[in-house]
Write a structure and sequence with these properties.
Elements (H helix, E strand, L loop, with lengths): L7 H19 L4 H14 L5 H4 E7 L6 E8 L8 E7 L8 H14 L3 E5 L3 E8 L5 E9 L5 H10 L2 H5 L2 H11 L2 H8 L2 H15 L5 H10 L3 H9 L39 E3 L5
Parallel strand pairs: 3-4
Antiparallel strand pairs: 1-2, 2-3, 4-5, 5-6, 6-7
Helix pairs in contact: 1-2, 1-5
């Protein structure tokens, strides 16, 4: 649910963009027709100048032959301007696939660009690229221009707008995504402070005192298999902190493997991490 309202002008722009993409979808438009609509969205919705800020068919020099990315988003004017987002565009009737992500990610790596946008006009997917061996591409945000809430779409486009990107919105977007990543959230959930709070609430509601390790096991049952694996990687610190005025004893810590005995329930959640294979 959206946190705030959008003005009438912004709503109109999103509605116009939606109708434009719906029209090219019905006509089964090709990639060139899709490109023209996407460029208009960059101009009308996100505030870029198509001639100054969208570098079409930008040359990318890698280990092999020179390749060309569909277009690169840049804040400065000129062919030598640094790209801030590499855009891979597919025609509106083509579903976005992993092979498309691999292609544009390789362009981003060769250009030293940390951000990738994959779109067919209808689907929009924003990725952050971590350089390493192998590189890791993480899905940061995604939306469907046709079916998603208009207000939500407006705020997502705003984060990629010319004004926002120039003010550092991509850095803030990545910081937020990092904080909300599975390992970060799970680490916070099973921290001593969080477990202590949960135990107090459970005791207040039920009158039952729960051991911290049993509580972690209960939390694990709420997770799907992928989240359970992430939880097993976290080093638990269940020792109570010493206080000067109390004589509380430390809680005995068992091995992490004891936490993994119960199989997790299948609560469906989508992983936002894509590990790129060697050579990409």
């Amino acid at each position: 649910m959206a946190q705030a309202k959008i003005d009438k002008e912004t709503r109109r722009k999103i509605t116009d963009a939606r109708r434009m993409i719906e029209k090219v979808m019905k006509a089964d438009g090709n990639e060139a027709e899709t490109r023209r609509r996407v460029e208009r969205i960059f101009e009308n919705v996100m505030g870029y100048d198509a001639f100054d800020h969208l570098s079409r068919e930008r040359a990318v020099k890698g280990a092999g032959e020179t390749e060309h990315v569909d277009f690169a988003v840049q804040l400065e004017v000129g062919q030598d301007a640094e790209p801030v987002i590499m855009v891979e565009l597919k025609r509106v009737g083509v579903d976005l696939a992993l092979k498309h992500l691999k292609q544009v990610t390789s362009y981003a790596i060769d250009s030293g660009c940390e951000w990738v946008l994959l779109t067919n006009g209808r689907e929009w997917k924003v990725y952050h690229v971590e350089f390493g061996q192998p590189p890791i591409t993480k899905l940061v945000d995604q939306w469907d221009l046709i079916t998603d809430d208009t207000t939500d779409i407006a705020f997502k486009f705003e984060m990629l707008s010319y004004k926002k990107v120039k003010r550092g919105s991509l850095k803030k977007l990545w910081e937020k995504a990092t904080v909300l990543s599975p390992d970060s959230l799970l680490t916070a959930i099973v921290s001593l402070e969080s477990l202590s709070t949960l135990r107090r609430v459970l005791r207040k509601n039920t009158g039952v005192i729960i051991d911290p390790l049993d509580l972690v096991k209960g939390i694990r049952k709420l997770l799907n298999e992928n989240a359970g694996i992430e939880l097993s990687k976290i080093k638990l610190d269940l020792q109570s902190k010493k206080k000067k005025r109390t004589g509380r004893k430390k809680i005995e810590v068992k091995k992490d493997t004891e936490i993994l005995e119960d199989r997790p329930l299948a609560l469906e959640t989508e992983s936002s991490i894509t590990n790129m294979p060697e050579g990409v």
